[in-house]
């Protein structure tokens, strides 16, 4: 693509924050300390988790950078950044979460394949850019459309990113045309993150943001948009990020038997304490994040400090008066996480548990064994922290 290149090696990687926990150097995959996630409602770009499949693309000339829109449409177009910036700008607060978040905990039950994420492969940001609905209207696709007259039913996003999983080809993913053309879905072609231009790690100069859906569908370093008849046939749609039951292993897996994962389930994590924490007896603040996909808000967060025998409801915080313009309906937090907090008296060693319930009444599963799968995705089981009390008088 003119204006942007996908390097063949890792010699020109961007500088990253030195506090990140690196899970893979080449390609670079890293997450912040869990305590950093609850230090602010919006996750700073340098502390937002980094999920990559190859070397980070380099923009050579922003003026020459463009995105092609083609496929089963009548009028293919090449859009430059100035064309996209002329469209109405929307700011959407959305949480992105890697499908492999909390994979390390799942692997303790039985080995899984994938990057060893802790609990911080998630972040919340204000994404600024053009709505995909407005972009597609430029090529004659109206809002709220299920199919084009040429049979297009899916929208495929193609990156300049080069991936070993695609045999050196580009990363790509797709969503349905009905979702892409629904203004309420708030799918963006984003060029800003928290009021600043995207940095290289997060897709500069342009990326897709699909709110409420696993991060794998929010393609970075966008090169092309293809209108196609069937879902994307790429590796990350057909042979990855699918949810299988615990009975399936690598010997009997049938990838075509499952649909690609899209919405992420209700999730909740304690961030103020590590998995095993030693404290002094007394009042303990328990705080963290909770989120659910598909635009479903968090109805409540329950916390137990006695291993699940009794529960208390945590207070929830979702800041709607952020210094960016919300959408026309004022629903700037429709897709965002909540931060929660509760203070409890703890006098002896115990297990602290947190679980969330979303607006549709969905509850996190109690045991990780019940959701174990060979790819280690969507570990949304109750989050458990072991607390040891250090009583100096004993």
From TrEMBL:
InterPro entries: Ig_E-set, MoCF_OxRdtse_dimer, Mopterin_OxRdtase_euk, OxRdtase_Mopterin-bd_dom, OxRdtase_Mopterin-bd_sf
Matching Pfam families: Mo-co_dimer (PF03404), Oxidored_molyb (PF00174)
MF annotations from Gene Ontology: heme binding; molybdenum ion binding; molybdopterin cofactor binding; sulfite oxidase activity
Keyword NAD applies: no
Cofactor(s) named in the record: Mo-molybdopterin
The protein's Enzyme Commission number: 1.8.3.1
GO CC aspect terms: mitochondrion
Protein's GO biological process: sulfur compound metabolic process
Keyword flag Magnesium: no
Domain Oxidoreductase molybdopterin-binding, residue spans: 53-235
Domain Moybdenum cofactor oxidoreductase dimerisation: 260-389
PANTHER family: SULFITE OXIDASE, MITOCHONDRIAL, SULFITE REDUCTASE
Protein name: Sulfite oxidase
Upper taxonomic lineage: Eukaryota, Viridiplantae, Streptophyta, Embryophyta, Tracheophyta
